[in-house]
C-alpha cells in the first residue's frame, strides 16, 4: 500500500505541475512570440572502489529547469533550480532577449507524449551491500603481480524530463541509466600501462546480469599483460583495421562534429560547402540515430522535436547536417532532432546522439587475412579533431601488428592521425558485424557534456599515418 500511495502522489504531483506550468505559459504567451520550459528531475548514485576499499557511495537529487523565449525575433534564455521563482526566470529570459544581436524564426513544432522508462529492477530499491559485493568480486579477480592499482565504479541515474511550449508541446519522458566502469594500472619495471572496461545501458539493476565478471576480468588482465610486454613502432603510413568501438568513435569525432550545423553557420567546419558532394568512399553510409538503443538515445530532443534516424553520409555523399531549432530556422530546413543540452541550465545546441555506420559485406577474419602488413587497432583511448582544417589524431587502448594476414605483436601507445577528407576516401572495406558497443561515451562541446553512443562494424582504412609514443 505504501508503494501505491507514493505512485499516486507522484502522478498527482505531476498533474499539478503540468497545470501550473500551463497557467504560466498562458500568462506570458501574449508577451512573447514563443515560450518553452524544460524541466529535469533526477536522482543519481555513484559507488567507487579503489582496489578493495570503498571510497565513495553518494546519492544526489536535482531539479533543474530552463526557459527560452523569443520576443520580436530575439532569443532569450534563463535557468534555475527553484520552480517557485519560475515567473521571475521567465521575465529574466525576456530581458536577456533584448541583448541578442540577431533575429531568428524557428519552425512551429508541437508534440505530446508520455513515455515510461524500461526498467525491471529499480537500482534505488536494491540494498547497498549487494551493489558493493558486485564491485568487490570484480576487484578480487583483478589482483595480480603486475597489477598495481584498480578503480571500479557503479553508477545509476533515473528521472523525468518534461518539456512544455507555447506551440502546444507537452512531453513527459522517464529515463534510466546504469553503468559499470573498471580501470586497471599495471607496472613492469618503470613502465606503467592501463586497461579499462565499461558498459552502460538504458536499463535498471538487471543490466548487471549481462556482465560476466570472470570473462571480463580475464580479458582485462590479458590485455594489460600484452601492453606491458608490447613493442613500439616507428612512424609511417599503414593500412589500419578499426574495431567496432574505435570505428564508432573515429567517425563521431572526425565526421560528426564537422556536420553539426552551428559550425556550418559560423563557417568553422571544413564541410561548410560540401553538402551533396562526394566526401568519402562509396562504401560509407553513416547515420545519426537517437531512436536506437545506445548511450545517446532519446525519444525527443531537448527542444521537443521527435527523435529520428537521418543519414549524414549516403554512399559517400554528404547529405545532411545536424540541426537544432535555431540553426534549422536560420538555414530554412527541417530540424533533425539534435537540439541537446547537458541539463536545463544550458541552452540546447546541435549535438550528435548515436553514430551508426551501416555494415558492409566483409567478415572480420577476411579483413585481417587480406592485409599483408598493417595494424589492427581496438578501443579509442582519446581523440580530437580540428573541424576547420579537418586534421585529427586518435590514440587507442590496444593495437596489434598484422603481418602476412596474421595478427602478431601487441603495439603499445599506438596513435593514428590524418585529415578527414583524405581518410574518408580511403575506406576500402567494411565488415558485416555492425553492433552497439554500450561503452558509455560522453562528448564535450562548448562547455557541455552529453551522452553519446556508437553502432559500428570493423572498418579498414588505407594509408593512415601511424606512430607509437
| Major sheet size, sense and barrel closure | 7 strands, mixed
Tally of separate helices: 9
Q: Radius of gyration, Cα only, in angstroms?
A: 24 Å
Taken together, the total number of domains comes to: 2
The coarse overall form would be globular
Average pLDDT confidence is: 93
Q: What is the total tally of β strands?
A: 23
What proportion of the residues form beta strands (DSSP E)?
35-45%
Oligomer: single chain
Secondary structural class: alpha+beta
Distance between the termini: 62 Å
Which bin fits the share of residues in helices? 10-25%
Could you walk me through the main structural features you see in this protein, from its secondary elements to its overall organization?
There is one protein chain. The protein is of the alpha+beta class and 469 residues long. It has two domains: 27-223, 2-Layer Sandwich (PmbA/TldD fold); 236-468, no CATH class. The chain is built from nine helices and 23 strands. The chain has helices at 2-28, 86-97, 128-140, 213-228, 244-256, 261-265, 325-331, 364-369, 420-425, and strands at 34-50, 53-71, 74-80, 112-115, 147-165, 170-188, 191-201, 236-242, 286-288, 310-314, 317-318, 339-340, 349-350, 354-357, 373-385, 391-403, 406-410, 414-419, 427-430, 435-436, 441-445, 448-456, 459-468. The strands form four sheets. Strands 1, 2, 3, 4, 5, 6 and 7 form a seven-stranded mixed β-sheet that branches. The longest helix has 27 residues, at 2-28.
